[in-house]
Amino acid sequence: MEVNILVIDDEESIRFSFDRFLAAEGHKVITAKGYAEALARMDETEFTLILADIFLQDGCGIDILQEVIRRELKTRVIMMTAYPSRQTAQDSFRMHAAAYLVKPLKQKGLIDSVNKTLEQ
């Protein structure tokens, strides 16, 4: 089964690294630098998994979760942030995020979280 993963982060270095790490695991990775670009990618492709940064320059990653729910997608979503808070964690899990990861992420931690989420 081919796994399409969307990585949404406004930091180019994170998009590049996650793309490399996940592609090396055999996944097809598409990246977006913000909310608007992510919505456009979601219009073009069906994703198995979305990795979304919570704080984006043009929106909020939690809005991506809301969009997945609104579109009734079977896509799993992992939320990421360098600025964790109880509120964003609660909001993420209330909307059924598969995981809430705190950056910076090491390659092994990212791969382990992705694999665990894909097995669910």
Short overview:
The chain is of the alpha/beta class. 46% of the residues lie in helices and 24% in strands. The chain has one domain: Response regulator (Rossmann fold).
Write structural notes for this entry.
The chain is α/β, with parallel strands linked by helices. It has one domain (4-109): Response regulator (Rossmann fold, 3-Layer(aba) Sandwich), CATH 3.40.50.2300. Helix content is 46%, strand content 24%. The chain has five helices and seven strands; from the N terminus they run βαβαβββαβαβα. It has helices at 12-24, 35-44, 61-70, 86-94, 107-119; strands at residues 4-8, 28-32, 49-53, 55-56, 59-60, 76-81, 99-102. The strands form two sheets. The chain has a five-stranded parallel β-sheet with strand order 2-1-3-6-7, sandwiched between helices. A two-stranded antiparallel sheet has the order 4-5. Strand 4 (55-56) and strand 5 form a beta hairpin. The mean pLDDT is 95.
Give the topology, please.
Layout: E1 4-8, H1 12-24, E2 28-32, H2 35-44, E3 49-53, E4 55-56, E5 59-60, H3 61-70, E6 76-81, H4 86-94, E7 99-102, H5 107-119
Low-confidence stretches: none
Q: Which structural class should the secondary elements be placed in?
A: alpha/beta
* Count of DSSP H/I helices: 5
Query: What do we call the CATH topology?
Result: Rossmann fold
CATH uppermost class? Alpha Beta
Write the CATH architecture name: 3-Layer(aba) Sandwich
Mean pLDDT: 95
**Number of beta strands:** 7
What value does the Rg take, in angstroms?
A: 13 Å
What percentage of residues falls in helices of 4 or more residues?
40-55%
Strand order of the largest sheet: 2-1-3-6-7
The CATH homologous superfamily corresponds to Response regulator
Distance N terminus to C terminus? Answer: 15 Å
What is the beta-strand fraction?
Answer: 15-25%
Count of domain modules: 1
What is the H/E string?
EHEHEEEHEHEH
Described by the principal axes of the CA atoms, the overall outline is globular
